[in-house]
From TrEMBL:
Domain BRCT stretches: 598-677
The keyword DNA repair is assigned to this record: yes
Classification via InterPro entries: BRCT_dom (IPR001357), BRCT_dom_sf (IPR036420), DisA/LigA_HHH (IPR041663), DNA_ligase (IPR001679), DNA_ligase_AS (IPR018239), DNA_ligase_CS (IPR033136), DNAligase_adenylation (IPR013839), DNAligase_N (IPR013840)
Protein name (database record): DNA ligase
Alphabetic keyword roster: DNA damage, DNA repair, DNA replication, Ligase, Magnesium, Manganese, Metal-binding, NAD, Zinc
EC number: 6.5.1.2
A GO cellular-component term linked to this record: cytosol
Classification via CDD domains: BRCT_DNA_ligase_like, LIGANc
An annotated Gene Ontology molecular function: DNA binding
Enzyme kind, highest EC tier: ligase
Domain of life: Bacteria
GO BP, sorted A to Z: DNA repair; DNA replication
Length: 681
């Protein structure tokens, strides 16, 4: 095979595929601006793989096919860095940064301001990439700064690492060592852990650990499956060429040669500009797509860097200004359980106070029962707490070597710690929830807001802020309490005068006349939306038989399965719920009896769609009338659609209905139909 004759056409095609795929990789991984569709990229890559398989001598180290990984290694070879990879000194406050600037000016005998290059300090793994004549020949970890490990096979799989350099305005040196950080973006980390959880594998603690673990795989095919990225921050050995005299300009040139550089990088004219930059990036830290743990400031002038030199294991011309620590160790003293607005019962860790992320933390979330089991955490353990920005502190791991005898197992309550209702877990859902619904005071505000919403009882003027104010003032303890409000109580609230109070009382009185479907929806029973509420009302006709129905009877209702049936039955079995429903009826909430299934529902089994602008009815009103006649109202046109109601401005739905030969009615024709069925419109 090695003596196989290769035509010039084949050689040219291989070179062409190299260029196409290298450009596509650069556009996708470095510029975040893909121009080649995935399917087309895969087609070109497969073609190149086939050609290299047929003509092995055409496969080169910089071939795009080398990104898929190679056969596993038995160990990592040791690499000695030509130029040591030094660490950085750290500053932890403005005073220490100002002192760094003072030392720089003193050593340079400079009275004027020093210009600095400013870059976010990525929380990843430092690597060295060595290029000869523009081709990647070696990649190594930092190690102890003098020697590292050869991870070339793994680094070749990282899409943002150029296997061959691009030509820029200035030609790259014959020998170029580039240094940077390989990291895992936040979204990639979340997806990696999601996949691991789905197959029962151990989760990574944070993106840095995930990146480190991925780079140290002996099987590079595993690394190829991990969402890693490279961002370069400097150079090491350079021979056979010149680089700019400013650090920022050097990084810009590296960008031309195909490397990803940090978009937040810029120069500051003086040390105050550095402090401003630190504050600016700190404010946007949580919105960045990657983790950072500080800012690196470097004297921008390379000649000045050379004059300043090094001390021990760090350069005199650079300083890392660290953000407050986001992770710290402390002791888990106890666990309490809180009930959220949706009924989720959340375990909260009570901690020995610890300073982390710029504040003293004494509480942290443990999320749910599954998370406690995953962590293997017990009361009395030493744990690692993470706090990022304004995110609620969380327990991320247990320091098992610090575990003491006598740790207490964390047990979830069987009943809501607030209202005493049973707590429930749903298959496929990690959260455990209180079944009390609107009678649980922890869920009260949300329950009242839902009860008053437009699609429920439609109480005009009862906004979220007013609900919160009423509850906080101790004037409202349940949804039925809405109808016990007085003019004096309401008028005495902040920003509520006599007129506003009277308007709200009038709205409450008006809302008492409703329909059974709206009332059922307003109760906030889990998984009971508008359609399910209508089906329940249509099937049972009245409230009492519905409240008395067991799970089997409820499953006879259209579109009600065992899960929803259980939620409905459980809700109406609660004494508190029964009392609240009775209180609402005693307050005057009423409705006309519903027609049961099969009676006066001429549109039963039909699917209708509404499109365009309706001028007499609102879209919600039209939907309500149609559902009362038994129709299902869908959002899109399909072969199952029976009729389309089209108002002015109807577009693609009308066109599709005409293509499928579906009956199309105008709003006036719909109004005629509704009037024929006894609706007064």
């Amino acid at each position: 095979m090695s003596h196989q004759t290769i035509s010039s056409d084949v050689r040219e095609r291989v070179q062409e595929l190299h260029e196409i795929l290298q450009r596509a990789n650069h556009q996708y991984y470095v510029l975040d601006d893909p121009e080649l569709p995935d399917i087309e990229y895969d087609r070109r890559l497969r073609e190149l793989q086939d050609l290299e398989s047929e003509y092995p001598q055409l496969q080169t180290p910089d071939s795009p096919t080398q990104r898929v990984g190679a056969e596993p290694l038995s160990f990592f070879e040791e690499v000695r860095h030509e130029v040591p990879m030094l660490s950085l000194d750290n500053a932890f406050n403005n005073e220490e940064l100002l002192e760094f600037d003072r030392r720089v000016c003193e050593r340079l005998n400079s009275k004027g301001p020093i210009e600095y290059a400013c870059e976010p300090k990525l929380d990843g793994i430092a690597v060295s990439l060595l290029y000869r004549n523009g081709v990647l020949v070696r990649a190594a970890t930092r190690g102890d700064g003098t020697t590292g490990e050869n991870i070339t096979q793994n680094v070749r799989t990282v899409g943002s690492v150029p296997l061959r350099l691009h030509q820029g305005d200035i030609s790259y040196p014959g020998i170029l060592e580039v240094r940077g950080e390989i990291y895992m973006p936040k979204t990639g980390f979340a997806e990696l852990n999601r996949k691991a959880a789905s197959v029962g594998e151990k989760l990574f603690v944070n993106p840095r650990n995930a990146a480190a673990g991925s780079l140290r795989q002996l099987d590079s095919r595993v690394t190829a499956q991990r969402p890693l990225e490279l961002c370069v921050y400097g150079t090491g050995l350079v021979e056979g060429g010149e680089l700019p005299d400013e650090h920022v300009n050097t990084l810009q040139l590296l960008g031309q040669w195909g490397f990803r550089t940090n978009r937040e990088m810029r120069a500051a004219k003086d040390i105050q500009g550095c402090i401003d930059y630190y504050r600016e990036i700190g404010d946007k830290r949580e919105s960045l797509p990657y983790d950072i743990d500080g800012i690196v400031f470097k004297v921008n002038s390379i000649p000045l860097q050379r004059r300043l030199g090094f001390v021990a294991r760090a350069p005199r011309w650079a300083m890392a200004y660290k953000f407050p620590a986001q992770e710290e160790m402390t002791e888990l003293l106890d666990v309490e359980f809180q009930v959220g607005r949706t009924g989720a019962v959340t375990p909260v860790a009570r901690l020995k106070p610890v300073f982390v992320g710029g504040v003293t933390v004494s509480n942290a979330t443990l999320h749910n029962r599954d998370e406690i089991e995953r962590l293997g955490v017990m009361i009395g353990d030493t744990v690692i707490i993470r706090r990022a920005g304004d995110v609620i502190p969380q327990v991320v791991s247990v320091v098992e070597k610090e575990r003491k005898p006598g740790g207490q197992v964390i047990e979830f309550p069987g009943h809501c710690p607030v209202c005493g209702s049973p707590v429930e877990s749903t298959p496929g859902e990690a959260a455990v929830r209180c079944s009390g619904g609107l009678i649980c005071s922890a869920q009260r505000k949300q329950a009242i807001k839902h009860f008053a919403s437009r699609k429920a009882m439609d109480i005009d003027g009862l906004g979220d802020k007013l609900v919160e104010q009423l509850v906080d003032e101790g004037l409202l303890h349940s949804v039925s309490g809405l109808f016990r409000q007085t003019l004096e109580q309401l008028a005495g609230l902040e920003r509520m005068g006599q007129k506003s109070a009277q308007n709200l009382l009038d709205a409450l009185e008006k809302s008492k006349e409703t329909t059974l479907p709206k009332f059922l929806y307003a109760l906030g029973i889990r998984e009971v939306g508008e359609a399910t509420a209508r089906n329940l009302a249509g099937h049972f006709g009245e409230l009492q038989p519905l409240m008395a129905a067991d799970v089997e009877a409820l499953q006879e209702v259209e579109d009600v399965g065992p899960v929803v049936a259980h939620f409905v039955a459980e809700f109406f079995q609660q004494p508190h719920a029964q009392e609240e429903v009775e209180a609402l009826q005693q307050a005057g909430v009423h409705w006309a009896a519903e027609e049961t299934d099969g009676l006066d529902q001429p549109l039963a089994g039909q699917t209708w769609v509404l499109t365009g602008k309706l001028e007499t009815l609102s879209r919600g009103e039209a939907k309500d009338y149609l559902q009362r006649l038994g129709a299902k109202v869908a959002g899109s046109v399909s072969v199952k659609t029976s009729t389309l109601v089209a108002g002015p401005g109807a577009g693609s739905k009308l066109s599709k209905a005409q293509e499928l030969d579906i009956t199309v009615l105008s709003e006036e024709e719909l109004l005629d139909l509704l009037r024929e069925r006894g609706f007064e419109i």
